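Example 9 (inverse folding). The structure is encoded as follows.
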């Protein structure tokens, strides 16, 4: 079990507009900090109480010049490593629309070097798989978009989406153990990096086609790209399953600022509502002794349930714009990140036994033990006794049973099959016995020979008496006989 708080990083988007005064400090031992300095408001000639400095702590702050490679190395690689070790991992990008969430998570379309966390992580994982021959890895990909509280499968290949609504709707199911299952979200196998990148491309295309100027879904929806990893040692029945969620959240801007009506307002209500629920969950998780966590309030918090608190290594990137007009939003993004940083997670290794693999392993073990036995006993054993062996045992048994000597033994050798056969044979005999004995009792009295079996009985004593008398008589006769011979010789 690994205990740690959610890691928070900040990334400042490059800009050539006038920026607010801000400073980045990564020299501190305990991490980095980002500070905004706002001019004091001068109203009616006197200074009001508005704070002028806002300072936020992060694990590290990445300023405007930091490139995608550095972001991957510092943020995503450690999470990918824990996923390879069998834990769940989540990276989510939070910030207002235009702050660089999609650029950071997926990448920019123009240059290869603009590739974001998803393609770089895929490349890193598949490189690891090909180098590590001590494990067998299987990977599946899913790509979910949540828009107005409805989930859509971006990877469903049957659909040529012209509208987001044309994609299959994903619904949440909860099993009795309160595990979340997503119905209709396809898990696409991806054997190599190319397959995985094609799936990412397919998902992003569906995401873009569905988006029109009227329906700018991508800034108003949450996208969750998930890599499902399964690993095991060759021949082992222990499976390790882990998931890596890479989450591009909807824009975090407040409704008031967008200030539009109609559909956009509904969307904004939903985005803000689900981010509001995310915030509630995060606040609840960061409070000690809170037993109820309101995961169920929104689809996003339900999906990320096992990835926010609890069993996960979670990392958040706060996307910050330092343009003057965006500072308010950037400060609220940083505030949110500070609350997220208070959540402690306990990541557990996801190990389980695969019954079919277990059976294969046990069969192998049995075969091995049989061979060992054959080596020790010097004879090859099959599962069943041969007809000859059975005949020999039954002959032995008959001799054993017919021998009146109570001390007689039956030599079978250290072979459970023979011992079992004897028991079965005796059982069969015993089951026959009562019926024959009962029949005999009905027809005639016990045979006289049975008297000798009971030396203490009355009859036996009588018999002994008679025997004595007989011997006495014999003696008398022989005396008489010898006297008679003697008399004859005198005569
Ligand atoms: P979001 O997803 O948060 O709405 P985007 O990622 O779409 O924001 O970024 C808005 C624009 O800014 C895009 O054109 C993107 O290419 C550009 N951009 C964002 N971050 C960077 C960066 N670090 N370097 C270069 N361009 C960036
Ligand atoms: Mg975006």
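The amino acid assigned to each position is listed next.
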């Amino acid at each position: 079990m690994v205990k740690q708080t959610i890691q928070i990083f900040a990334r400042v988007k490059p800009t050539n507009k006038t920026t607010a005064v801000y400073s980045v400090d990564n020299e501190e031992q305990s991490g980095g900090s980002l500070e905004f300095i706002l001019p004091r408001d001068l109203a009616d000639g006197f200074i009001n109480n508005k704070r002028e400095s806002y300072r936020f702590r992060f694990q590290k702050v990445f300023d405007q010049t930091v490139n995608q490679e550095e972001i991957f190395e510092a943020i995503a690689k450690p999470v990918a490593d824990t996923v390879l070790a069998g834990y769940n991992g989540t990276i989510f990008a939070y910030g207002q629309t235009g702050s660089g969430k999609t650029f950071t998570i997926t990448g920019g379309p123009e240059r290869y070097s603009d590739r974001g966390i998803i393609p770089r992580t895929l490349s890193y994982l598949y490189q690891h798989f090909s180098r590590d021959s001590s494990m067998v890895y299987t990977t599946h990909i899913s790509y979910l978009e949540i828009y107005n509280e409805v989930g859509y499968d971006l990877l469903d290949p049957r659909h040529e989406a012209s509208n987001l609504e044309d994609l299959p709707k994903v619904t949440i199911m909860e099993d009795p153990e309160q595990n979340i299952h997503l119905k209709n979200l396809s898990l696409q196998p991806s054997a190599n990096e190319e397959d995985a990148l094609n799936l990412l491309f397919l998902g992003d295309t569906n995401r873009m086609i569905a988006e029109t100027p009227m329906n700018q879904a991508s800034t108003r929806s949450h996208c969750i790209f998930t890599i499902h990893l399964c690993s095991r040692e060759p021949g082992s029945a222990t499976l390790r399953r882990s998931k890596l969620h890479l989450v591009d959240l909807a824009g975090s801007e407040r409704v008031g600022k967008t200030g539009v009506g109609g559909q956009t307002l509904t969307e904004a209500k939903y985005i803000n509502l689900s981010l509001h629920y995310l915030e509630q969950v995060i606040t609840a998780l960061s409070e000690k002794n809170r037993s109820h966590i309101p995961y169920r309030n929104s689809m996003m918090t339900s999906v990320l349930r096992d990835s926010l608190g609890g069993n996960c290594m979670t990392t958040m990137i706060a996307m910050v714009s330092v343009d003057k007009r965006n500072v308010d939003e950037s400060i609220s993004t940083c505030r949110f990140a500070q609350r997220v940083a208070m959540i402690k997670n306990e990541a557990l290794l996801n190990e389980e036994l695969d019954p079919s693999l277990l059976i294969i392993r046990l069969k192998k073990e049995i075969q091995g033990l049989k061979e060992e036995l054959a080596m020790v006993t010097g004879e090859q054993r099959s599962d069943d006794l041969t007809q000859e062996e059975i005949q020999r045992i039954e002959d032995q048994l008959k001799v054993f049973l017919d021998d009146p000597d109570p001390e007689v033994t039956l030599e079978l050798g250290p072979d459970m099959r023979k011992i079992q056969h004897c028991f079965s044979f005796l059982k069969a005999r015993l089951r026959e016995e009562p019926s024959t004995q009962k029949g005999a009792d009905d027809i005639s009295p016990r045979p006289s020979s049975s008297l000798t079996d009971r030396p203490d009985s009355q009859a036996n004593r009588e018999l002994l008496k008679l025997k004595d008398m007989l011997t006495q008589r014999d003696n008398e006769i022989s005396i008489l006989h010898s006297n008679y011979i003697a008399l004859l010789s005198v005569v």
